[in-house]
Design goal:
The protein is an alpha/beta fold and about 220 residues long. It has two domains: about 120 residues, Response regulator (Rossmann fold, 3-Layer(aba) Sandwich); about 100 residues, Winged helix-like DNA-binding domain superfamily/Winged helix DNA-binding domain (Arc Repressor Mutant, subunit A, Orthogonal Bundle). The chain is built from eight helices and eleven strands.
Amino acid sequence: MPNLLLVEDDPAITTNLRDFLRLEGFAVEAVSGQREALARLPGEFDLVLLDVSLADGNGFAVCSAIKRETDLPVIFLTASGDEFSVVTGLDLGADDYIAKPFRPRELVSRIRSVLRRAGKTGSVIELGPVRVDTEKAQVTKNGRELFLSALEYKLLLVFLNNRGRVLTRQKLLEEIWDAAGDFVNDNTLTVYIKRLRDKIEDDPADPQLIRTVRGLGYKVGV
């Protein structure tokens, strides 16, 4: 999956944006300042989302350093109507910019467009025999397409984006809350986990891909 570095000093924006992008099939690491950002680069990232104003320094210096040393794509997050920041960012080699406040879906579209141009789509995620193409929102198992509801698909992405972690039921509820315009409570979550297992597991009664960790929650098993 595409690996993004989010450089943003507003904690609320960072939390909301990181959670949303993870649900859309991206891996996201977040830092708040210029020093932290430069320490993480070049790293294993496919794209940088970069705010202009940072906790220390500024996004222009980070972009300049990135473009001087790498071919890593950069999208600037700028204040609405801030023409100077837009022009300066593009002059430094930024690949795109989006003005705050922005629509999350538009941002995802712009990210995918830049990744395609840079040849860094990395849109296929594998979980045993299951393959998820996040670009097409398509899920297959052993080459055959699986038809998941919107909420089942979001739930699968939550598990894929949290490999190696035990996810409590409360955490799952927080991640998928109203993701498909449906009311999700604890009982509903149980139903959707069962439905998802019925579709992706070889033996839903003995799940190997999404395992139950007794007394704690669930964990991806592959």
